[in-house]
Amino acid sequence: MHVVFVRGSTGSAVATVHRADGVSLQLPGYDRKHKVPHDFAHYATERALEMSGGVFGAIAGGGVFADMRVVGGKPRHDAAARSKRLLDAHRETLSLAELLAGVVHRAVEDGSTEKTPAMVRDAWQSMGTGPFPWTDEHVEDAVRILTELTGEWEAQGTVRVTWPDHLTAPLPEQPGIKRGRRGRA
Question: Quick one: where's region Disordered (predicted)?
């Protein structure tokens, strides 16, 4: 999936997402008060921590958030139902992605990146989700990616990135639907 961030009319970042299914969506940003766009923090954190169920993995898998709009291509006839099923299935990971991306975002925005691994571990523990599954290097990679995106944004006002296919959120099976061959009587 390809994502292009540009400066919107209000000064915040607007992402145009070009999914593998041929549908293009626009994701508006609401962060013009920050030098680091929040959606960059989602991209950097979710990519570095390999979170397929975060914002960008969910979008790649067919999820559409309420503030998004289709700007190209033709969605499937059942796109809304599939999106709801996918977003519902990944609700916990989406919440975690919001929390962790917020920590990374704040650290890069404030220039206090040396404590980011500890801050991310603390945020993880606040959700009570067990042992921390990443290394300090994973978190530092998120900081590095976000810092690079921010530098490119400040220099050019446009950033192009690719979301890896292997980090696409899986669509859960629809309840009540049997797959496979019918038995013979």
Answer: 165-185
